[in-house]
Amino acid sequence: MTLFIVVGCILLLVLLTTWGKVNAFIAFLLVSILAGLLLGIPLSGITKSLQKGVGDILGSLVMVIVFGAMLGKLVAASGAAQKIASVMMKIFGRKYIQWGLMVTGFIIGIPLFYNVGFVLMVPLIFSVVYKYKLPAVYLGLPMLAALSVTHGFLPPHPSPAALVLQFHANMGMTMLYGILLAIPAIVIAGPLYARTLKDIVAIPLKTFQSEDLPEEELPGGWNSFISALLPVIVMAITTVGVLIFKDNPALTSFAGFLAEPSIVMLLTLCLTTFTLGINMGKRMKQVMAIYAEAVKDIAMILLIIAGSGALKQILSDSGVSVEIGNVLAGWSIEPLFLGWLIAAVIRVCLGSATVAGLTAAGIIAPLMINSNVNPELMVLSIGAGSLMFSHVNDPGFWMFKEYFNLSIKDTVRSWSIMETLVAVIGLLGVLILNRII
Length: 437
Description:
Its main location: membrane. The chain is mostly helical. The protein has 19 helices and no strands. The longest helix is centred in the N-terminal third of the chain and has 35 residues, at about 45-75. The two termini are about 40 Å apart.
């Protein structure tokens, strides 16, 4: 019965936003309240769940998204995006620019948290889209597929790192196996699948669009790339710093503070305010006006993401994930496939890859005690399952939809299927490696 309630609420959400034309934020709140009532949460508990869900997801995302939008707007307005697009086109050529962006996404995705990578990469994607009139989804999906795979498969991202500790797996071997699985997953779900999406018409957010500037008014190539990719540089330095100074608590704490995504983005914004703003002849008032305009453009995105957080919290507080997981755990199935299946079902029902991965790990851990399952492969199996079919209850789905300005149908056809391909290819890779090692 619980599963029918969850499915029914998700279908209602889709109907409200598509057929009913209800604002997605309002639709999320209405469906969340209904789900709470049907799943037996007390009225006072529903209110607390809504507030906690909205607060938790905005607490972790609002600064990252806002600072990312400001950075993206400045990168576009200063001409840095135009410069980056020109340089990348010279390096890869029009024929291989998609693959170039994909490799960039994979490299950047390893140290950066997914949400930071998303808001950082989207302006670069759009700069190439606008300058060379290429299909936005066709060009951008491979890069975002790379970010998604690193988020689900590879430490130090939250879910894989936690699973490595919980299963006592080897971090290095998990990384090695994860990269082996990531390559075919990204290639198939990215460039190859994106070939079928050239007909999708997407008009991305105008925040990251600017008129072409004369070559002499553009910032230099090094300035453009370093300024736009500064979060990656800061994150890499702080990560290495934590390892180098692990015996010095004060320095480790300071490096850990600097590695927080919101702090990374704030530091980046402060530096780029000078490198791409003041240094390029803009006054501080002009730069601040650019930032204010950027926030206006992403306000609704923040509300929609907040709404998805409310629904996720209602489903989590109702105990749906544990109930579904316990039912599936009673099935007599190959452990690696069972771990993937539990994570996949929870992901589809709740929307959060991290929640799906951690919940599945807690359920599957007792089953591994008397088995000979490879712990590194179990980490990857659950990680792959946690990416299964992202749809309307996942904040990532709405970020992609709103930034690329797509219909729900086209978002499912592109984003949701890409995530499903990644999950299935990851599972197949795990089962093949299990036969070899």
